[in-house]
Amino acid sequence: MRRTFVKAIIGASIAMAFHATASAQTQEVRIGVIYPLTGPSASVGGELKNALEMAADIINNGAKVRDLPFAAGGGLPGLKGAKIKLVFADHQGNPQVGATEAERLITQEKVVAIVGSYNSAVTLTASQMAERYKIPFLNPESSSASLTQRGFKYFFRTTPHDDLFVHNAFDFLKELQEKKGVKIGPIATFNENGLWGTETTKLQAKLAPEKGYTLAKQILYPAKTTQLTSEVQTLKAANPSLVMQSSYTPDAILSMKTYKELGFSPDMILANNAGFTDTEFIKTLGKDAEYVITREVWALDLANRNPLIKEVNELFNSRYKINFTGNSSRTFTGLMVMADAINRAKSTEPEAIRKALTETNITADHLIMPWKGVKFDENGQNVLGRGILVQIVDGKYNTVWPFNMASREVTWPMPKWDQRKSQ
User: Which of 208, 107, 203 has the alpha carbon at shortest distance from 161?
Assistant: First the structure.
């Protein structure tokens, strides 16, 4: 009897410990997030971290924001109020570090899903690791078109990709000529030589002649470079009317300083987001950032069409004293989409989360993005996203295209550098 009693006590203790562990697990949903928290892109990485933390806080504790999913707080109702726990990893802008950190998050931190990673080259390697371990990977910002052309089952991307964005740029130029009477001369491309920049270059090289434009020069410069003098001199010698540029924050700022220093002043710089929409771009350059046009996915002036944009941005600004950007707004949205899938899955099993992601159908009225919604195709690409173009005027990003959504007219051409001194 004594032996039986001891066995019963031990068995009960083990069961209690098991149930306590299971209960603890259901109270916390561990999501890995991989971003550049140090290195050249640390400034934008910090903003993305803020966006993620605010999204998690809204889910866990609530916020007075109408129409936003989970704004009531209290965790995920589908998991009996389980709270989101973000587990951060720093990829430093290095693809190999991104892959290593993804594996660490999966094998050591036991995350049930991953969100990341801003830099397309890092998203490529980190998501390969997630696919190997069959862990859902949601990418809110990376735009290299090939990321959703790999046949992966566990990879999902909410942002539109560069194929759409580059087409948007040429659609804008066509409408600018037809509706505004602007003449577009020779085009040059000036892109970083990573995955994102090289893929964008190929798309631009293909579309420019198809759309009837002369491609005067294509320049790929070293990513993370500390000087662009020779490249800008080559660009200036080609004398393009328009420069299409893809740069991360440090080189976006460096290029503008070099343009001014060498007196290179095309009619327009049409940028491909990233560094040109980082808060540091205008903060560092001041008036020298003026008139650049960049593709975007979000703009504060669209709040007159969607009040949710204003409400969520005010919450972000009250916490961090900065406004959302196209980068941080997408990251915020990405975590919300992942939380929606986990909530509907009513499970932290990766396969259940993957299945729920394939069934995602979020409508426009529940997003802070100017999209038609979020719905993934068989490749994991959101088919309801779209892009806009904004122009920096008076230190703000103003929507200028599509023209029916514009908050102001396009200023074209950009004033020459020596014409800005009195401004």
Answer: 203
